[in-house]
Specification:
alpha/beta, 8-stranded mixed beta sheet, globular
């Protein structure tokens, strides 16, 4: 049976190579975040004041694109959500069977247009492992990572998002995968799918603890690459699995946009910002209703984070002669 996930006239590179175009992004916003580029193609847009960081969004680009194509939209969202760090990984460059074997950034191979082909997705397991690794860094499980500077957050303060193939990866990963060394699902703050679809539909099994994960699925009504019908196909499958586990099928929300092709509009970005404010709001003090700093247990920090915290606290003199991580932890704990 033909799949509704892709049009039969699909030429992926012509649609996606040049990245996402978002019209009318205002450059007048007062940005309080800095973009940092890493050697593996990952771009991190983080609050300049690390103490404000209390939530993270991992945003996966579409087929044929890179993290660079999403810098402007992510910076716009960061200007609306100054407590959120945005992590934009870049997919590995590999041949895509459907595109005559042409090599391009791809989270997994697409071998055909039919539903059976959509169950294969070679390379998806490796991409999911990479995304899980990014999450583990965010929650502080990778405590030996010297490059991890920001304060750890809980899984419930992480949103996994993506566009097109990246949206497919976000949806499947967020709903099926487990926390490290656990049988518990990720239990994320939310999932955002933009112009995406559900891959491996028949194989999908929602992980326990993820059945109430809020999902926002945005899609253009005239999408010529991934037809808008993919939203209902994806929602029907995911919602039925969620309901079987006692979850709320209405946690899967769909928004469609008139006149929008395989791209992102300002209306859509603003809807994403609204969703993010709801699922990962700033942490407010119960008495003053003001945003509070993200106070982190020193035992959950990496060595790099500990050194930065010691410097910010003005404890460099007390730290002289210390070399062991345990010594740094003891010093900060006393402080």
């Amino acid at each position: 049976r033909p799949s509704l996930f892709f049009t039969t006239s699909l030429t992926l590179s012509s649609h996606l190579r040049h990245g996402v175009r978002v019209r009318a992004i205002s450059s007048s916003s007062s940005l309080q975040a800095t973009a940092t580029r890493h050697g593996d193609g990952t771009i991190v847009i983080a609050p300049d004041d690390d103490s404000r960081h209390s939530a993270s969004v991992i945003l996966c680009h579409g087929l044929g694109d890179t993290a660079e194509g999403w810098v402007d939209p992510a910076q716009y969202l960061a200007s609306q959500l100054p407590h959120v760090k945005f992590i934009l990984p870049t997919a590995p460059t590999q041949p895509v069977t459907l595109n005559m074997g042409m090599a391009m950034p791809s989270w997994y191979d697409i071998i055909g247009l039919d539903s059976r082909s959509n169950e294969v997705c070679n390379g998806m397991d490796e991409s999911m492992a990479r995304i899980l690794g990014l999450m583990e860094e965010e929650v502080g499980l990778d405590t030996n990572d010297e490059t991890c500077k920001s304060s750890p957050v809980d899984y419930s303060r992480i949103v996994l998002a993506g566009f097109s193939q990246g949206g497919a990866l976000a949806l499947y990963t967020g709903m099926t995968q487990h926390r490290k060394n656990s049988q518990t699902g990720l239990g994320l703050g939310g999932i955002v799918v933009m112009s995406g679809y559900l891959p491996r539909s028949k194989q999908m099994a929602v992980a326990p603890g993820s059945e109430n994960t809020p999902i926002l699925h945005c899609h253009g009504k005239v999408d010529s690459v991934v037809p808008v019908q993919a939203t209902e196909l994806s929602k029907t499958r995911v919602a039925s699995l969620v309901e079987e586990m006692g979850g709320n099928r209405d946690s899967y929300q769909v928004k469609t946009y008139s006149g929008l092709d395989h791209s992102v509009s300002m209306e859509e970005l603003n809807d994403v910002a609204t969703f993010l404010r709801r699922v990962i709001p700033p942490i407010l003090d119960a008495n003053s209703n003001e945003e509070v700093e993200n106070v982190v247990d020193p035992a959950k920090m990496s060595v790099r984070q500990l050194r930065d915290a010691i410097q910010k606290a003005g404890l460099e003199e007390q730290a002289k002669g210390m070399f062991e991580k345990s010594e740094y932890i003891d010093l900060l704990s006393k402080y």
